[in-house]
Design brief:
The chain is of the alpha/beta class. The chain has 1 helix and 5 strands; from the N terminus they run E-E-E-E-E-H. It is elongated.
Amino acid sequence: MVAYDPVTGGPLEGEIELRGSAVGDVCAHEVEIEQGAVFAVRADQVKMDRSASVLVAAHKVEAQDVRTVLLLTPRLRGNVTALIDLRTAVAIGAGFFLARAALRLAAGATRWLVPGRRRSK
């Protein structure tokens, strides 16, 4: 189920409520899920109760006994088990950036320190 406005391409106005359902993709202003499974939820407000998802991205999440892989929200209230949350995602990104910078620095130093490895002009 994909809930998009066909004219604007944005999320549907209003609220989507799911009870005991399995859904692929939900995008709306307000989403309420009870005992459901959803692949991806994108909304302004999400309320989830005893549910599971792969991705939850919202401005505000209220959850009780929810499991998700990726949780992106500045405001969370409730009990959520997330494999990756917003802080973890930022830390992973910073780690990749620093590792890449260190590898480039090491590669540059190797070119200048090892004889015969210098670039010819």
